[in-house]
Amino acid sequence: MKLRIETAGMEALMVRLFDTIDVTNMAWILAADQALRDAFGEALVDLLPSYTTLLLHYDCRTLSHLDAQARVQDALTGLSPADTQQGQHHEIPVWYDESVGPDLERVAKRAGISIAELIDQHCQDDYCVFALGFAPGYGFMGLVNDTIATPRLTTPRRHVAAGSVGIADRQTAIYPLPSPGGWNVLGRTAVPLFEHAKRGEPLLRPGDSVRFRSISRADFEAQGGDTTPMEERS
């Protein structure tokens, strides 16, 4: 861990701990998150942990820029990694089918494997939730096995259905809401991520882990899933 404190605005600091993405970073990111919350107390407006950084927004009426920097330095000196076992583990059922996962065949061909093998690979690992962003409840997860890692689409789709599960490079994620998107869509889940976020209780939080589980269309429908096909060029 190499602590760097960067200015991110008149009342915000970017606390940078690492330069590269790695699952092992999260123990330090989570420890820094708690230490900064404790150190800033009521002067903290918001704190957003991510892959290698934490964006800290403080109350400039309470702290000067130099005071905030000093408080960060003091809080993180001698930091020890957190216990990552404290995060929640989630099993997410997914219906993998070309009607709702229009990129299944292309991603499988790129990897030189069958669609069944692609699904097995996507379901065989526990993925760390690194950060929340883009849309309420949207968790950026990884790291996807190199074999099935696939670059984002050159041209994003104008509409990706809620519950769509996709891959972008070595990341994977679930779209909580219908939205534009450039990730490679493999399937769909009926888990209502947006409903949790709307209540202020996001299902996925940084430090959690996720494993996907392949289910049948019948099971997906029984869970309330929307089987409306996603247009290839939508």
From TrEMBL:
Stretches the record annotates as Disordered: 215-234
Keyword ATP-binding belongs to the record: yes
Matching Gene3D superfamilies: 3.30.1360.40, Cyclophilin-like (2.40.100.10)
Record GO terms (molecular function): 5-oxoprolinase (ATP-hydrolyzing) activity
Keywords for this protein: ATP-binding, Hydrolase, Nucleotide-binding
PANTHER family: 5-OXOPROLINASE SUBUNIT B
EC assignment: 3.5.2.9
Pfam families membership: CT_C_D
Domain of life: Bacteria
Taxonomic lineage: Bacteria, Pseudomonadati, Pseudomonadota, Gammaproteobacteria, Oceanospirillales
InterPro entries: CT_C_D, Cyclophilin-like_dom_sf, PxpB
EC top class, as a word: hydrolase
Annotated ranges, domain Carboxyltransferase: 3-204
Organism (species): Vreelandella janggokensis
Name recorded for this polypeptide: 5-oxoprolinase subunit PxpB
